[in-house]
Amino acid sequence: PSAPRWPLDKSEYKRYGRQLIMPEIGLQGQLRLKNASVLIVGVGGLGCPAAAYLVGAGVGILGLIDGDTVEESNLHRQILHSTGRVGMTKVDSARIALNSLNPNVKLVAHTSHLTPESAIRILQLYDIILDCTDTPASRYLISDTCVLLGKPLVSASALRTEGQLMVLNNPPLRAGDSRGGPCYRCVFPKPPPPESVVTCGDGGILGPVVGVMGILQALEAIKLLTRNAQPPLTSEPMLAQPSDPPSLLIFSAYANPMFRSIRLRTRKPKCAACSAQASVTAKALESGSLDYVQFCGTVNPVDAL
Amino acid sequence: PSAPRWPLDKSEYKRYGRQLIMPEIGLQGQLRLKNASVLIVGVGGLGCPAAAYLVGAGVGILGLIDGDTVEESNLHRQILHSTGRVGMTKVDSARIALNSLNPNVKLVAHTSHLTPESAIRILQLYDIILDCTDTPASRYLISDTCVLLGKPLVSASALRTEGQLMVLNNPPLRAGDSRGGPCYRCVFPKPPPPESVVTCGDGGILGPVVGVMGILQALEAIKLLTRNAQPPLTSEPMLAQPSDPPSLLIFSAYANPMFRSIRLRTRKPKCAACSAQASVTAKALESGSLDYVQFCGTVNPVDAL
Amino acid sequence: MGNIKFSVEFSGGLQDLFGQKKIPIPSDKNEDQIQLPKLLPGESLKLKHVIDGLAAKLKGRNAKLKLFVQGDKGFYEVTPGILVLINDSDWELEGEYEYEIQSGDQVLFVSTLHGG
Amino acid sequence: MGNIKFSVEFSGGLQDLFGQKKIPIPSDKNEDQIQLPKLLPGESLKLKHVIDGLAAKLKGRNAKLKLFVQGDKGFYEVTPGILVLINDSDWELEGEYEYEIQSGDQVLFVSTLHGG
Ligand SMILES: [Zn+2]
Ligand SMILES: [Zn+2]
């Protein structure tokens, strides 16, 4: 979005006052948030808290993608939903909660799972993407699409008592530019063997573990959107300041210390998605010739791409 | 609470299934949660997410203390409240949200601020206390009362882009027992000069920062309540396993790494609250002779003890 | 192997494979000992030797072994989806299999998580 | 002070007092240099000297100075509400003011936060 020229209205100063007064946000940062659109893919244990804090902070547009409906077994960790809304689509349930928290945010519903055919069309509408999904196939699809579209990706995952967080494709430079941030394929060139993939349904998940990871995704998105908000706006806000070096945050609820930061590699020179010799192209994606489910293999049918 | 003997009902297996199947919780851990009562002091930026995840996890009784009403400037971070409930007491607003998330949890409302006169009477009803308040005076009062009552205390705070978390009085042994965990006075024997105390109103606060700290409080409470849930229950669940060494978790949203764990001291041999020569007694507290507001001094009137 | 002391840690579910989060090498416990090659004077211990030693502990339990290492091109390759970190840095920054273990090193194997 | 190199860090709002989060000592930048006493051979640099040096940088700005140190009993005392950490441990475990700075040490001053 281009640089905004209008100030906030009075109720916005009131609502956002506590973050506006911080030098890290300021009026320019708040306007950046207001003019930003963020997409949350997966409105589950990660997506619920991520959405709540992004809506609280006043992003202009929040997109929500999920094809599932609310189940009772979701409620211990998916705090936007409620017992009375079991059976409703997760997207609609979340919209009710988010709209009552902050009616100023425009919520956009996408009530089916992301597919290779729909990914570019949907993701291109947003400035930043949050991967809050729960299968390897969806993680590769989202990352590939973010690289093709030049969008930064905030990716998190959680299982049992552990969580992981990465900011990928940041800065989101074109494929082949080694100054761009690594993508999911740079870090994990090959998918894990399907028998090693444990879902939250199989392995279990502690609510606050996935909750912490989801909130940290909202935080990283806010940091990305408000970077350089204090200096005069430039036409390339994502590039004006050097990005943090790529890192992986590992959370382990029963370890001591609980958090650990790992330095990650830069872009992989032969990455299939973000290198000069990338084989993942928009055409291949939209034609359906990239079969992510087959690429990742299946033991059980993948139920949440 | 004594060891439970009845199992869960069918809908509870469904609702809590994803945490029940983990060895860290298990059926015994879920029963521990169901038989536990937790008090949240302060239903603001910390208390909202802490309450949501404790209610999601299925604690039996959740107490909520706060004397404030919901304001629009709270909503960017206090995600249990809503625009339509501005003006309602925070406790009542939170009860509506929490009850719709999980109607199985008994919610107990305390709609006035904690005072030295009421502290023992209220805190003694609960197994674990979460300090989610925002002034030094309330932090000393809550810690002193936890020491007097032998309750573990999960204390967090946040300001601007930073947060801090400590589990205090853990294990909660009687004053003078050096094997007990340190209390707030052990770590901070003297209150800070009032002019150094910055509130979220003055200094600002980023929503996800306080959100992360609040969720981590819920996590620490769940860990404490379900400790030793796998071995046979004993009459002293809090003591059966060695506690983690006392530590302070420091979160700084714009630092790299964002999290840092610090080893804290053990109990202070001359602590005014938890040592053999403690001057803080139940009698002094209930008679009102301990003036926490005066002890901490004031620049502006303290508006949220 | 001289006096090299280092540690191997597991996260993201791999701790279940080896029964614990952290193994000091050499270990106090006999059952945690891993087999490392006898080195000639001047020869150095490499990360691939450590991986071989860890894999040997999973021998006979093929389903588990495959979750840690795969293939057999002279030496094992770490299963896709596992990040290897040396002193909190991605091993791609450090030389991967050929990295020479130093005393005090912390080697961490993290399995990527997919839940959400 | 010989070849001792260490760092001083600030958190919890104290970074605003000194204008930055981390000061290496000795520093590359002139304006970040802190005054440390000339030590005799065999004499060691103590944490109290570092605190004096940091306090000296706030001289003349009394309101700020009081947020960092108070009193005047021969040397400054750190203002209540500030935790001092040496290599991620509470300084009460390490000898407080009399702690002898070692090369590589990280000294962290954390102001306690009260917001919620
Ligand atoms: Zn790549
Ligand atoms: Zn004490």
Automatic annotation (TrEMBL), chains C, D:
Pathway(s) annotated for this protein in UniProt: tRNA modification; 5-methoxycarbonylmethyl-2-thiouridine-tRNA biosynthesis
Function: Acts as a sulfur carrier required for 2-thiolation of mcm(5)S(2)U at tRNA wobble positions of cytosolic tRNA(Lys), tRNA(Glu) and tRNA(Gln). Serves as sulfur donor in tRNA 2-thiolation reaction by being thiocarboxylated (-COSH) at its C-terminus by the MOCS3 homolog UBA4. The sulfur is then transferred to tRNA to form 2-thiolation of mcm(5)S(2)U. Prior mcm(5) tRNA modification by the elongator complex is required for 2-thiolation. Also acts as a ubiquitin-like protein (UBL) that is covalently conjugated via an isopeptide bond to lysine residues of target proteins such as AHP1.
GO biological process, one term: tRNA thio-modification
Main location: cytoplasm
Pfam families associated with the record: Urm1 (PF09138)
UniProt PTM comment: C-terminal thiocarboxylation occurs in 2 steps, it is first acyl-adenylated (-COAMP) via the hesA/moeB/thiF part of UBA4, then thiocarboxylated (-COSH) via the rhodanese domain of UBA4.
Name assigned to this protein: Ubiquitin-related modifier 1
GO cellular component: cytosol
Localization terms from the record: Cytoplasm
Residue positions, PTM 1-thioglycine: G116
Cross-link (Glycyl lysine isopeptide (Gly-Lys) (interchain with K-? in acceptor proteins)): G116
UniProt superkingdom: Eukaryota
Entry's family note: Belongs to the URM1 family.
Keywords, comma-separated and alphabetical: Cytoplasm, Isopeptide bond, tRNA processing, Ubl conjugation pathway
